[in-house]
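Field guide to reading this record: the first block holds the primary sequence, the second block holds the structure written as discrete tokens, and the final block holds curator observations. Each block starts with its own label. This record concerns Adenylate kinase isoenzyme 6 homolog, catalogued under organism Skeletonema marinoi.

BLOCK 1 — SEQUENCE
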Amino acid sequence: MADETERRRPNILVTGTPGVGKTATAAMLAERLGLQHINVGDIIKQHKCYDGHDDALDTHILDEDKLLDLMEAMFQKCAADNIGIVADYHSCELFPERWFDLILVLRANTTILFDRLTERGYNDNKRSENMEAEIMQVVLDEARESYDVDIVQELPSNTKEDMEANVERCRAWAEQWVKDNT
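BLOCK 2 — STRUCTURE
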């Protein structure tokens, strides 16, 4: 992959518990900042990056090596084409630290999150596990343990106004990143 000093556009990871608004936020960021949006969940499904299924949680078991190999090629191509990336996924610890310049950890009020997960049709086990993960701030702790804490930002994601404010804040950050790195 292109050395960080060679990149002219930032790479951002939007992460958080399922249902906090990662994909919607990432899509808005990519559109407003002119970056490439990578929905990691879609990549996993499209390229079958899994080794079986967990019936209790109604989810696939991730093949991390296959996913990371595919994403490495995407990051290399985007860097070569001078395109930054906004990726979104519910976990962050598996991604190399060198890939991202900013980690946005979206958080939601548990009442709002419960309703969102119920609307998605999550079964009781899957909903309960995700609610517990949000309450225990599992994704935030994972991000702080996996990346330099200076690039990890915890942001509320309860309303459309929160999302707009998060996108605007990130836009200002990205403009400064470009000035500092070109």
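BLOCK 3 — OBSERVATIONS
The radius of gyration is 16 Å.
The chain has seven helices and seven strands.
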